[in-house]
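Example record

Each entry pairs one chain with its bound ligand, iron/sulfur cluster.
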Amino acid sequence: MPVVVAKDTCIGCGACVGVCPVGALSLDADGKAECDESICIDCLACIGVCPTEAISQK
Ligand code: SF4
Ligand code: SF4
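Structure tokens for the complex follow.
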């Protein structure tokens, strides 16, 4: 399953955006990460780099 970002926990550091191998993550207009579920390959790399544990599996 694709990952989901808890917007209230995300601090917009961009670490997940940089580590995603397929470019599924980006920062939205509020500076919070969001995952494009049509691109995500469920590698879970982003979960490991998030400093606030804002990313989880759906
Ligand atoms: S699980 Fe992998 S492919 Fe999906 S958003 Fe995270 S880093 Fe990108
Ligand atoms: S790594 Fe975590 S805190 Fe940083 S932008 Fe991604 S979801 Fe937000």
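The chain has one domain: 3-57.
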